Amino acid sequence: MTFTVAALYRFAPFDDPACLRQPLVDLCAKQAIKGTLLLAGEGINGTIAGSAEGIKAVIAHIRALPGCAELDVKYSAAAAMPFKRMKVRLKKEIVTMKVAGIDPVRDAAPYVAPADWNAVVDDPETVLIDTRNDFEVGYGSFEGALNPHTTSFGDFPGWWRANAESLAGKRIAMFCTGGIRCEKSTAFLRSEGVEDVVHLKGGILAYLEQVPAEASRWRGSCFVFDERVSVGHGLVEMGEKGERDLPR
C-alpha cells in the first residue's frame, strides 16, 4: 500500500480553536489518519498521512472550517506510514515567531510561482534568504541562498534586526519548506519597513514537484518532518528514518 501524505496550512481567524479539535481527532481516528495538526487562533498547520480516501475526507473537513476554503495542500506519497500516531494540538501560533501583531493574511508579501523562481535565484540584485532552521538547511538549499543559521523560527526576527542595515534597499526573496514560514516572515519584514520582498509560492516542496531536475537551482534534498526525513525532485523519498516534529 502506498500512503498519501498531505502537508497543509492556512492562516485563518479561528475564534475558538479548541472547539475544532475533537471533531478533527474523531475524523482522523475514523479514517486511520496519522500525523500532526496544529490549531491556533491564527489558523491550522500540519502534515498527515493515510489512504487517499481518508486524506480526502480530512482535507474536505478542514476546507469547511472558517476561512479555510483556500487551504494550501501539497500531496506526496510514502511507501510506508511515515507517522507513528495522530496528534491534534492547540497552540498560541501555528508557526512560532513570538512577534505580536503580525498578520500574514493581510501583510504577506507577493508570491513568485515555482516556474518563475529560477529567475529570482539567478538575479544578482536579489538577496535570497532561506528562512528554515540551520539543521534543515544542512540537507539542501537553493544556489547562493543566505543561511541565517537559526536554531528555531523564533530566532529569525532577531537575526533580521541584527542584519537589516546591511540588507537595506535590497530586493529580498524568501523561501521555506511548504510556504508557511515565509507567509509570516515576509509579513514581519513588511512590518519592519521592507517594501521589496517576495516569496516562493508553495515553498520548496512545490518547486521540487513542479520544476524538472535538469532545470533546477536546488542542491541537495529537502528535509521533511516525518519518517521519510527528506525528499528530492518529484518529492521522492531520500532520507533515513526518524519521526520529527513540525518546524520550531
TrEMBL record:
Occurrences of domain Rhodanese (ranges): 122-216
Give the UniProt record's GO annotations in the biological process aspect: tRNA modification
Give GO terms: molecular function aspect only. oxidoreductase activity, acting on paired donors, with incorporation or reduction of molecular oxygen
Give the E.C. number(s): 1.14.-.-
SUPFAM superfamilies, A to Z: Rhodanese/Cell cycle control phosphatase (SSF52821)
The UniProt keywords, alphabetically, are: Oxidoreductase, tRNA processing
Pfam families linked: Rhodanese, UPF0176_N
Q: Which reaction does it catalyse?
A: uridine(34) in tRNA + AH2 + O2 = 5-hydroxyuridine(34) in tRNA + A + H2O
Cross-referenced SMART domains, in alphabetical order? RHOD
The main enzyme category here is: oxidoreductase
Instruction: Give the PANTHER family listed for this entry.
Output: RHODANESE-LIKE DOMAIN-CONTAINING PROTEIN 7-RELATED, THIOSULFATE SULFURTRANSFERASE/RHODANESE-LIKE DOMAIN-CONTAINING PROTEIN 2
By its UniProt entry, which HAMAP family does this protein fall under?
Answer: TrhO (MF_00469)
What is the similarity comment for this entry?
A: Belongs to the TrhO family.
**Could you tell me what this protein does?**
Catalyzes oxygen-dependent 5-hydroxyuridine (ho5U) modification at position 34 in tRNAs.
Q: List the NCBIfam families.
A: PRK00142.1-4
Its recorded name reads: tRNA uridine(34) hydroxylase
Query: What is the organism of origin for this protein?
Result: Sphingopyxis flava
Q: Which gene encodes it?
A: trhO
